[in-house]
Design a protein that fits this description.
Blueprint lengths: L10 E3 L5 H8 L7 H17 L1 H12 L12 H10 L2 H19 L6 E7 L2 E9 L2 E5 L8 H14 L3 E6 L9 H10 L3 E4 L2 H10 L10 E2 L4 H9 L14 E6 L5 H12 L6 E6 L2 H15 L4 H11 L4 E5 L3 H11 L3 E5 L15 E4 L5 H6 L25 E9 L4 H15 L2 H6 L2 H8 L2
Parallel strand pairs: 1-10, 4-5, 4-7, 5-6, 8-9, 8-11, 9-10, 11-12
Antiparallel strand pairs: 2-3, 3-13
Helix pairs in contact: 2-3, 2-8, 2-9, 4-7, 5-6, 5-7, 6-7, 8-9, 10-11
């Protein structure tokens, strides 16, 4: 690996860029899913046709795991073994995180039934019920993610979803990551299946002899997982778009450059397909952060160093010097990052100007790490610029609403008259007939 120096970090001045160059900075590494879509099609069809047998074969091919149909589902003994294998401090941290996540999501629960009087004699409202089933996808390829098990399963349980399963890739030894298995148990999920990647998504969408078919799938994943969700979206609700990690540290002239550099490393270590930028109008902050970065990169493991240097030294990461705080914020809103951290003496002053971000972390005591693991708000967030139209995963993702309306006899005539006019204008004779004198006669005959 080449020597880590400040010069390997991409440094860009926004004022020097033309429109096309600025747009290139907004592009994600995996923006074009075409090759992934073509690659997953045969996998999806194979799982549809062969079910468990296909899952066993793909576990061997992609995960190096020797499974049988019987071992696709985690047995009770595996939960016990996972709990015994974990250090007590890890188990304590998982339980602590679970409690915070549960408390936060309980605040999101709406009233089960809400009715209001729209006008005299017209009552309307909504009835909220949980969706019937969901699969929580917990990735593994570039790390272990018990936090994702907590973030996906707990809001589903709080919402009251009846069937909740976890699907996750097995390790080469054929087991599920111990932390993930323990987190699922702490959350309250006992159905955990060893199938990741596109084949896991297919199992949840089609169902197999072992894996139950579910209504929705949530959780982040690789471009292969994202592609599979897209192709199967007519069979299963794919949830919010959650792909490779991305972040922006937005720092004004009062920010600590070293802290900005420290936190820039966080999301960039997820993988070479991540995006991570420090955006600031201060040349001092930008240059000082660039100088500080090598000291924070060098202590990382070889794999994480490679990811961080690839991201921060490539087209999808580094340091961006803006002409002003307004142009810095404009870049943030155009990028619509998954994670946004605002550093400065008064980070709240910019809050109203931020329109597009999955999460917004304020101040030097709120690094990405806390948001990812245990503050409480969900860390499964929209990526790929979808923070412009999608929200973080929440209890609401596991609930659906039915509209309820009741009209009184006294209110009906006025409503019927107006509806008859509109039905006639739109040319729907049956609609008009249903609110005509015919209805009045039928009601009187009863």
């Amino acid at each position: 690996m080449p020597e880590i120096t400040p010069e390997i970090i991409q440094f860009v001045a926004l004022t020097d860029l033309n429109r096309h160059e600025r747009e290139a900075l907004l592009r994600r590494p995996t923006a074009d899913l075409t090759p992934f879509l073509e690659g997953v099609r045969p996998i999806l069809e194979d799982v549809k046709t062969r079910g468990d047998a296909a899952l066993v074969d793909y576990a061997a091919k992609f995960d190096g795991a020797s499974l049988t149909r019987k071992s696709l589902a985690c047995a009770p003994a595996e939960f016990d073994e996972a709990e015994k294998a974990l250090d007590p401090t890890v188990k304590s941290a998982i339980r602590y995180a679970a409690e915070n996540i549960r408390r936060f999501h309980e605040t999101q629960l709406p009233e089960p039934l809400k009715l209001v009087e729209i006008r005299p004699g017209v009552t309307g409202g909504e009835k909220t019920t949980p969706i019937p089933s969901v699969a929580c996808y917990v990735p593994r390829g570039k790390g272990s993610f018990p936090s994702v098990a907590l973030m996906t399963a707990i809001p589903a349980l709080v919402a009251g979803v009846e069937t909740i399963i976890v699907i996750t890739p097995p390790g080469p030894d054929g087991t599920v990551d111990a932390g993930t298995l323990y987190a699922a148990q702490v959350a309250g999920v006992t159905l955990v299946f060893k199938c990741g990647g596109a084949q896991g998504v297919a199992a949840a969408a089609y169902g197999t002899e072992t894996v139950p078919r579910v209504s929705k799938i949530v959780g982040p994943g690789s471009p292969w997982v994202v592609a599979a969700k897209r192709l199967l979206s007519d069979l299963i609700d794919p949830g919010l778009p959650a792909g490779p990690s991305e972040s922006i540290v937005l720092a004004d002239e009062t920010a600590n450059p070293e802290l900005a550099a420290l936190d820039l490393v966080v999301e960039s270590e997820h993988g070479s397909d991540s995006s991570a930028f420090l955006v600031t109008p201060s040349r001092h902050v930008a240059e000082a952060a660039r100088r500080a970065l090598p000291a924070f990169i060098k202590p990382l493991s070889e794999t994480r160093r490679r990811y961080v240097t690839t991201v921060l030294g490539g087209k999808h990461g580094g340091i961006i010097l803006a002409g002003s705080m307004d142009t810095a914020i404009a870049f943030v809103n155009d990028f619509a990052p998954e994670h946004l951290e605002i550093l400065g003496d008064d980070p709240r002053r910019y809050l109203n100007e931020i329109r597009n971000a999955g999460e917004i972390l304020l101040g030097s005591h709120t690094p990405f790490t806390l948001g990812n693991y245990l503050i409480g708000p969900n860390a499964v967030l929209p990526t790929g610029g979808w923070a412009k139209t999608f929200s973080p995963l929440s209890v609401h993702d596991f609930l659906k609403r039915s509209s309820i309306v009741q009209v009184s006899a006294a209110a009906y005539p006025d409503l019927a008259e107006k509806a008859h006019v509109l039905a006639g204008y739109e040319g729907f004779d049956g609609h008009a007939q249903a609110v005509s004198k015919t209805r009045d006669g039928l009601r009187r005959s009863r």
